[in-house]
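User: quick one, sequence for these tokens?
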């Protein structure tokens, strides 16, 4: 671990204090946790504060389009077997939010940091990570995010020459191309359910061939690397060929993939797979995701799905028909205001489910469901939707700000 004996400078201490005060005012005003505004104030007073706060930590960065909040939580839980951890557990994953989180970690040994895809290179430059976990890249926030190939190129440029060990998903061609510029890569076979952003070769533009689990470009020879870690059913296979059982309270194949990457990261920090996976069982929910709550006398399971890849994974873990489903979609700043991504989601997978639709953009979603040939009802509020749902636990699927709206309404 790096030396933590050097105290913060007076300027850095003032920045931390001012940031905490701004965050407290934000919370008192009911404007959320205050982590973002607190970080912005702190960084305005000391632009180098993020680097100073990370100086004493062994840092792992986690970035992806989907699954980074959950994977960050799993890695943090695993590393606590070896020492105290500071983490941006609530998902504030841009520099300001990360700065706020690290300001509370003066006694920590490890920093487990979720990073927005667009900020990965800059944050990696600031905090000198020991490891970087890369899970996937797919379309998201279409009005603000770069095309996925461009984002992969930014990762590739930012990782070139970085001394961190990159733990990367070898099943996503965009991730492989981005990670291949790094001198130290550990490949993990975590799977890739959503493939619609990775049919062309990111290296030359040719068409990728996908025989079975493998993929390759017949034009330039770019191909899937041989993994050293792998998800195999309900087990993690380590580099020695040993199979370790995955026991999670979090549902779905995607979370088994997250656990596999998390085990590989933990091993890099000296935590054995058995210990890491046992600790991951303690995680029951992540920032409200997967929570089962009681509302108006009914049980609701809260599920977040913010882009086509996320919706595809979520459909695979909900209970089968005739389980009722409530879908909620907004298009605010944090979601991206372009809702054309709805047409990329295969909503026919919800056939047989009673469906209610809510949210700011419920009519956009209603048109999409009508084209998919599904029966549904459009409702003005969650309360109305719950009353119209037939008996049984309700699967409630929402994109980012709609999910936060639901959590506030149900008191979660």
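Assistant:
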């Amino acid at each position: 671990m790096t030396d933590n004996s050097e105290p913060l400078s007076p300027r850095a201490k003032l920045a931390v204090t001012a940031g905490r005060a701004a965050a407290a005012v934000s919370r008192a005003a009911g404007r959320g946790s205050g982590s973002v505004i607190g970080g912005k104030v702190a960084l305005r007073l000391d632009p180098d504060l993020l680097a100073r706060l990370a100086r004493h930590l062994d840092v792992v960065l986690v970035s992806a389009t989907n699954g980074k909040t959950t994977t960050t939580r799993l890695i943090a839980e695993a590393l606590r077997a070896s020492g105290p951890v500071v983490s941006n557990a609530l998902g504030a994953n841009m520099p300001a939010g990360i700065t706020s989180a690290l300001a509370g970690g003066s006694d920590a040994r490890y920093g487990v940091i979720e990073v927005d895809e667009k900020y990965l290179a800059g944050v990696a430059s600031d905090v000198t990570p020991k490891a970087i976990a890369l899970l996937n890249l797919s379309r998201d926030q279409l009005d603000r995010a770069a095309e996925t190939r461009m984002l992969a190129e930014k990762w590739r440029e930012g990782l070139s020459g970085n001394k961190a060990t990159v733990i990367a998903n070898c099943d996503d061609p965009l991730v492989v191309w981005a990670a291949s510029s790094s001198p130290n890569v550990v490949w993990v076979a975590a799977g890739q359910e959503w493939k619609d952003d990775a049919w062309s070769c990111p290296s030359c533009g040719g068409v990728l061939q996908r025989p079975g689990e493998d993929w390759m470009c017949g034009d330039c020879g770019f191909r899937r690397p041989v993994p050293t870690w792998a998800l195999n059913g309900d087990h993690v296979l380590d580099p020695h060929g040993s199979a370790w059982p995955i026991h999670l309270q979090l549902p779905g194949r995607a979370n088994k993939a997250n656990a596999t990457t998390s085990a590989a990261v933990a091993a890099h920090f000296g935590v054995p797979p058995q210990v890491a996976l046992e600790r991951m069982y303690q995680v029951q929910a992540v920032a409200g995701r997967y929570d089962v709550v009681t509302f108006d006398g009914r049980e609701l399971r809260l599920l977040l799905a913010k882009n086509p890849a996320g919706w595809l994974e979520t459909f695979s873990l909900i209970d089968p028909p005739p389980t009722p489903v409530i879908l909620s979609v907004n298009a605010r700043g944090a979601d991206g205001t372009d809702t054309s991504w709805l047409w990329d989601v295969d909503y026919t997978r919800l056939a047989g489910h009673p469906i209610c639709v809510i949210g700011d953009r419920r009519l956009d979603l209603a048109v999409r469901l009508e084209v998919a040939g599904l029966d549904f009802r459009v409702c003005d509020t969650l309360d109305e939707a719950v009353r119209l749902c037939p008996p049984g636990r309700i699967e409630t699927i929402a994109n980012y700000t709609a999910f936060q709206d639901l959590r506030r309404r149900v008191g979660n």
